[in-house]
Fold this protein.
Amino acid sequence: MECVESFCGIARCLGPPVCNYFKYHRKLNDYVRNFKRIRDELNCKMEDIKLQLKAELRRPLGKIAKKGVENWLKDVKEMISKAQVVENKVSNERYFYRACNGKLVDEKTREMKELLDKAPNASEGLVVDGPSRRLLLSTSELVGQEAVRNKIWACLMQEEVSKIGVWGMGGVGKIAIMKHIHNELLEEQRFERVIWVTISKEFNVMKVQDDIASALGLKEYLDKEEDKLRRAAILSEMLKRAGKHVLILDDVWYEFPLEEVGIC
């Protein structure tokens, strides 16, 4: 009687593993088909998220991908790579390894399905404001310059005014006034972008183009282009896509055609 009980106990212990072994062995092809289906769904979801992310990063400019979106895309890329290794292993193994391969495929399919279920919700947006989008400049208190500041501000609020020149001898407070205006524009959010670029005495068209593109977070699109005219055209398109913006050019010593840089 004791022997019978011991045998039953062993059977209970071995039962589930043995059943799973034969299940994985017999249904390997079904597991592989499901594996490929989930992998393809995951890959398509990744491509959809990447396309939407690219579109959201273009307008308005100054946005960056949410950290969760970046992490998910990174995890999916790694998962797709691991899935390819599993697929290669299964296709090259012998008949006697069917059960082991079936279990491996099933486990990897579950991991991919879990990652697919955690995909970012595209309807909630995939981007947030970048750290430099609302970077306030250090300022000192304006003393006796409020009238000039108010005049410049009034011009900025007029739709028909597209260019404003602020000039005067060194030390009269031009930069201080414009820093205050820069910060106030950011705080009031009347414009989609407020861009500050320093020109300097040693004027260089390509450097100015690079500085503006960097402020927009799009310098990579200029790095591959060396022709000044084409660079100007690319920068002009960048500024158009930036929406309603204010571009402040500081420390301008000499007159130069704005079109040469790419400023509309």
User: Anything to note?
Assistant: Strands lie at 63-65, 127-129, 193-198, 245-250.
